Write a sequence for this structure.
């Protein structure tokens, strides 16, 4: 039974909303079409690729474990690179985060400086940093450690800076009222509030850095990357498979450890 | 003795929040400051220890003028003024002992503070005070594990650890249930007489104010309009303090402001 | 626990903060282990200190050569950037499309147990390898160029989007699904009425975030030959054209900042 009061049709969106939604969908579609149309690929090869990929993986089986010992040793070196860089970056990130936190930074210039350091550190990818430092320090793990450190400062510093900005100001007020010095106020009212975040972020970054340090070797900055590159370049696919499996194991273990540690913090 | 003369606080170019207050507190006495929200009670208290900067006027504590102090002198002066807060303002993640000892931060070296090596005198006194207020068993407990009333007791001990010459309490019981609230008020009254300490308490519960204090100061819209014993606080006085609204005040007192300015 | 009363007539006047790790054996054992590790790690690392010291002078030369940044070959720059954009777009579309079924496979409340383990395994493998490594393998499999880049970033996208989506699926209000089933709705309808509306906002947010992520990553996988502006950068470094390299880096950083801001803004408007 229809009446004059109730329309006969129902639609979830108004006409205007629908037009907007179709518009967005159309724009996305156009973008994808453009990308597909202008991308520099040979389509014959694209259709051929599943065969190629299958062939490659076929060549990797079974993994060749003859050099396992030296692979594991270099893997350990990779872990060390990640750990040391993370530790260094945390230490360096603390003053930068301090400068970049609006509520504690001395003045606008230092705020701007702190934020600039953090943004540059985060925006330049670890590999690009590694390229730069290999050019400066030559191939080797020094370049790798410095590269990861530089990249991690931005990550840790940004999150730490945000934690500093979000502290509860009331204990700060209370300690000011007791006549405590600035240093004492920082140690008692600010540090305890940001410590959990700092610990969690550091552990998280260590986990990420484990992954990052596996590829440093590909640009000459140390770690297991160079072993992988060597195996691939000389077509020793089975050895490459071993390396890949070791990396997989490392990352999984790292993630388990870091998740466990972070749960203990909270 | 605390002597406030012609205290004015103005934010920006608007109406002053405090309009030339005069107040003297001496000896061992518990003073309650009452008034509706916006009357300026909290601002008054915070001007005394300069958490809020007075615009003009004088505040003298035992002979020393507080309004002109800066830097280290200001810190030294703040040591002599204890403050208890509505939100307790404790460091949640630290233990009760550390919170209590943070009252001594103005007295101990930064190194001692960082390493938590508190002077024996301070530790002994902390235990004494904590026993007195009934929280000694929580010395090693994290502050956020305590109930509201217990946390406020920590706040009170922290303030008393400063060995202050005066204790300020800004709505110390507003976040507590009625029974705990009365317990804290009673505690402050008793401690005031035990330690020979003048206390100024901001409070909006007039019943508690009358019960636990020796003197009531009523503020309205930045002025003190009542200053007498609790027994003198009758219906008319209450009406004068609490009735109406700032807009109405502006309407009636408006011309008087223009003349006085 | 705080120390017992001192000899002064039972008055407690010392206090120590309860340590983080109660068991003293464990505590000191841990400190010792950390100290030993640091010493050992530093000693086993093959650091060429002499070369490192020379680094500062080299750095001076490089930065001297890098300024001012050279935008002469901006044509190459723009080409590289556009290619990275294409790679990111396609990888996001394909990656997100694949992530949806994989996410359902990896959701404990939807998938039967063996499928769940398979789904999780796919996500874990996709996440564990740095995109550069994945890129190298794909380059060897399908040749240099942007196709390898797209494949790499598809894997990269799956690793992130499928994981996050699976978590979201596990958190949905199952009551809505039950209500649909109780009304006799077929599975596909239940999917569209009870599940998709709950995950769609997160899905869109993830897609935009991943597009941004892929754009950044595409700059990097190019370094190993998978196309995009990364290749341009690697070439510049290889030819010691530091001023061009700086120009490219500036463009990359600027693009990242712009897309990060745009993605953040769009996501708040969703």
């Amino acid at each position: 039974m229809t009446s004059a009061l109730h329309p006969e049709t129902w639609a979830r969106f108004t006409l205007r909303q629908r037009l907007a939604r179709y518009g967005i969908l159309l724009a996305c579609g156009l973008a994808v079409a453009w990308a597909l149309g202008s991308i520099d690929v040979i389509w014959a090869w694209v259709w051929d690729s599943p065969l190629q990929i299958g062939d490659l993986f076929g060549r990797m089986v079974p993994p060749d474990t003859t050099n396992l010992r030296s692979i594991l040793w270099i893997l350990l070196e990779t872990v060390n690179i990640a750990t040391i860089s993370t530790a260094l970056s945390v230490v360096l990130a603390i003053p930068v985060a301090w400068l970049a936190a609006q509520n504690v930074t001395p003045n606008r210039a230092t705020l701007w400086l702190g934020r600039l350091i953090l943004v540059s550190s985060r925006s330049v990818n670890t590999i690009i940093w590694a390229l730069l430092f290999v050019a400066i320090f030559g191939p080797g793990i020094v370049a790798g450690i410095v590269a990861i450190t530089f990249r991690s400062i931005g990550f840790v510093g940004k999150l730490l800076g945000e934690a500093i900005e979000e502290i509860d100001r009331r204990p700060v007020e209370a300690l000011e009222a007791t006549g405590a010095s600035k240093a004492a106020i920082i140690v008692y009212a600010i540090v305890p509030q940001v410590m959990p975040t700092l610990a969690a972020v550091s552990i998280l970054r260590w986990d990420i850095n484990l992954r990052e340090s596996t590829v440093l070797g590909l640009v000459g900055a140390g770690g297991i990357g160079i072993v992988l590159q060597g195996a691939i370049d000389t077509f020793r696919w089975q050895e490459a498979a071993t390396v890949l499996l070791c990396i997989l194991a490392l990352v999984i273990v790292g993630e388990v450890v870091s998740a466990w540690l972070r749960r203990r913090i909270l | 003795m605390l002597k406030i003369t012609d205290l004015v606080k103005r934010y920006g170019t608007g109406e002053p929040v405090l309009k030339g207050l005069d107040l003297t507190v001496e000896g061992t006495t518990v003073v309650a400051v009452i008034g509706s929200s916006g009357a300026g009670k909290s601002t008054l208290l915070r001007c005394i220890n300069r958490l809020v900067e007075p615009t003009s006027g004088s505040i003298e504590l035992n002979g020393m003028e507080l309004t002109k102090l800066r830097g280290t002198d200001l810190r030294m002066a703040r040591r002599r003024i204890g403050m208890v807060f509505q939100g307790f303002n404790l460091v949640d993640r630290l233990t009760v002992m550390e919170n209590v000892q943070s009252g001594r931060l103005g007295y101990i070296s930064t190194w001692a503070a960082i390493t938590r090596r508190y002077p024996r005198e301070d530790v002994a006194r902390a235990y004494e005070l904590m026993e007195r207020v009934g929280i000694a068993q929580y010395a090693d407990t994290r502050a956020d594990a305590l109930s509201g009333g217990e946390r406020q007791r920590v706040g009170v001990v922290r303030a008393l650890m400063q060995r202050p010459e005066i204790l300020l309490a800004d709505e110390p019981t507003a976040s507590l249930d009625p029974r705990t609230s009365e317990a804290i008020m009673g505690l402050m009254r008793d401690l005031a007489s035990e330690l020979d300490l003048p206390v100024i308490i901001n409070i909006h519960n007039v019943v508690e104010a009358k019960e636990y204090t020796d003197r009531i100061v009523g503020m309205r819209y930045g002025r003190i309009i009542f200053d007498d014993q609790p027994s003198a606080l009758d219906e008319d006085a209450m009406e004068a303090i609490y009735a109406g609204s700032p807009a109405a005040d502006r309407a009636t007192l408006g011309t008087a402001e223009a003349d006085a300015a | 626990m705080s120390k017992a009363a001192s000899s002064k007539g039972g008055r407690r006047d010392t206090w120590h903060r309860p340590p983080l790790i109660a068991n003293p054996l464990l505590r000191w054992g841990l400190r010792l282990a950390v100290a030993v590790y640091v010493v050992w790690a530093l000693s086993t690392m093959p650091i060429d200190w002499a070369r490192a010291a020379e680094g500062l002078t080299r750095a001076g030369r490089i930065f001297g050569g890098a300024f001012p940044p050279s935008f002469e070959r901006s044509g190459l720059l723009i080409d590289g950037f556009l290619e990275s954009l294409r790679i990111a777009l396609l990888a996001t579309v394909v990656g997100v499309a694949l992530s949806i079924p994989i996410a359902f496979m990896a959701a404990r409340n939807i998938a039967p147990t063996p499928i769940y383990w398979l789904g999780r395994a796919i996500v874990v493998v996709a996440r564990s390898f740095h995109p550069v490594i994945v890129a190298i393998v794909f380059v060897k499999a399908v040749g240099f160029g942007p196709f390898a880049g797209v494949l790499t970033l598809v894997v990269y996208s799956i690793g992130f989007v499928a994981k996050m989506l699976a978590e979201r699926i596990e958190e949905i209000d199952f009551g809505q699904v039950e209500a649909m089933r109780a009304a006799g709705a077929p599975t596909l309808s239940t999917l569209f009425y009870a599940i998709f509306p709950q995950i769609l906002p997160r899905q869109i947010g993830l897609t935009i975030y991943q597009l941004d992520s892929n754009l950044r990553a595409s700059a990097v996988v190019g370094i190993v030959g998978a196309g995009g502006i990364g290749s341009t950068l690697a070439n510049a470094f290889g030819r010691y054209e530091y001023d061009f390299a700086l120009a490219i880096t500036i463009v990359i950083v600027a693009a990242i900042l712009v897309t990060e801001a745009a993605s953040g803004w769009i996501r708040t408007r969703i």
